[in-house]
Every structure is written in C-alpha cells, then in structure tokens.
Amino acid sequence: MKISVITPSFNQGHLIEKTIKSVVQQGHSDLEYIVMDGKSSDNTLEVLKMYEKKLMWVSEIDGGQSDAINKGIRKASGDIICYLNSDDTFEPGALEEVARFFENNPEVMWAYGKCKIINLDDVEIRKPITLYKNLLLRRYSYKKLLVENFISQPSTFWRMQVHKELGYFDENEHYVMDYEFWCRLGTKFDAGVINSYLANFRMYSTSKSGSLKNPQFDDELRVAKIYAGNRKMLIALHSINRLKIVYSYKIMNFIKNMMSK
Description:
Elements: E1 3-9, H1 16-24, E2 31-37, H2 44-50, E3 56-59, H3 65-75, E4 80-83, E5 89-90, H4 94-104, E6 110-118, E7 124-125, H5 127-137, H6 142-147, E8 156-159, H7 162-166, H8 177-186, E9 192-202, H9 216-228, H10 232-260
Parallel strand pairs: 1-2, 1-4, 2-3, 6-9
Antiparallel strand pairs: 4-8, 5-9, 6-7, 6-8
Helix pairs in contact: 8-9, 9-10
C-alpha cells in the first residue's frame, strides 16, 4: 500500500533533517515523500539536496502552510496520505503499522494514533497532556471531537480518495487547518484508532503552536461552532474545554519558568 507523506516547510533548516530522516528511514517499501518548501532563505535547500534521491521537493513562494500542503497532495499518488511538519518526526515503524491498519480495515477512510510531545533535544515533555489525550482518543466520537480537539495532527492518516468527496485543506485557515479537516471528515466517516505511538510533535517557544499568544484555541472554537450547528451544549462544553486548556498551559509555563530560575 503506497503512502504519501507531505512536508510543508519554511526556514526550518535547523530541524528539517530530523524530520526527513524519520520519514526516509521508515523502511516502508512503497513510500512517496514530497517536501513543499516556501522559498526558504536559510540552509533548508542544502539539506533537501542532500536527500533528493529519497524524496521529491519543490521550493517556491506559496500562500502559507495550507496552500503548501494542498500543492503537495495534488502532486501525490499514494493510497494513504498524511502531512508531517518540518519540525515533527515519525516513530520508527509507524508507516508499516499504518499500512497494515488500512489494509486490515478497508472500510476505514481515516485513522489516528498516539503522539508524543518533544522538545528541541528530542526529549519527551508534557507527559500529562499526552496521557490526557491518550485517554480521549481510545474511542472515536464525532461529538467528542466537536467538544475538544483530541486528535494529534502528525499521527493522523487518511485515504487519498476522501479529497474527491470533501476537497482539500481550507487555505483560509492558518492555525487549525487540521482540526477543520478532521471535522469535515467526521461529517462523513468515523475515524479508526491505531493504538500505538506513531509520531512526535515538537513544541518550542518559536514554533507556531509553542505560544499561547496565537489564536489557535479561539479558531478551534470558531470551527466547532460551524460544524456543531444548533447543538448548543457541544459548543458550551467546547468553550469550557478551551478555558481549561489555556489555563493548564499557563500553569505549566509558570511552573517551568519558576523551576528555571
């Protein structure tokens, strides 16, 4: 089963080699790897040239992350597809496990697995958050997804054919394009659950998701309202969860800052 992996990239030369290695060293026999670079001005292109025999890459100005992902998807030819950001990594053997899951479950159109949170040194951090999300993702529910985004983007995969029916990532979304797509998928298909760690999400202060000063959680609430329609209770619960998540992160950051003094 052919798997296509798309990596959108822009000025991540200090991290992208780790991402590339985690993909090309998977050992999956039918892998297509496409890197869509947004005309980086750092050493990204040097790294890509080092691995160009193992991947396809394009470097051109794009309209942002969602646009880059969509361009990569349109170039892809795999049966199963995903995107892995240029600072995240796959766990060893992840793609074999994904291929096996989809082969054994032909009715499943998309699926997610577990994901660790790591720092710049590849050390796992924020384990309580991972434990909490693992408890939520054990059983998929669309209502639960509308209440809280418990699905980790780097460990989510889907069949290429869903794009024919549901389109591509919303290029107007810059922080929650993944959550919007999961909600759209959920209107048609239940997700499968792969009970294994498939990927690592890298969190650090300068990453898009590394700061609570971004509108991610507000955007998730906005998207949930669109798909929940008149189900006001779901929106109320999502609003409560939003506050819970924001303040949990603030407390963890406060503790981290106190311990570093």
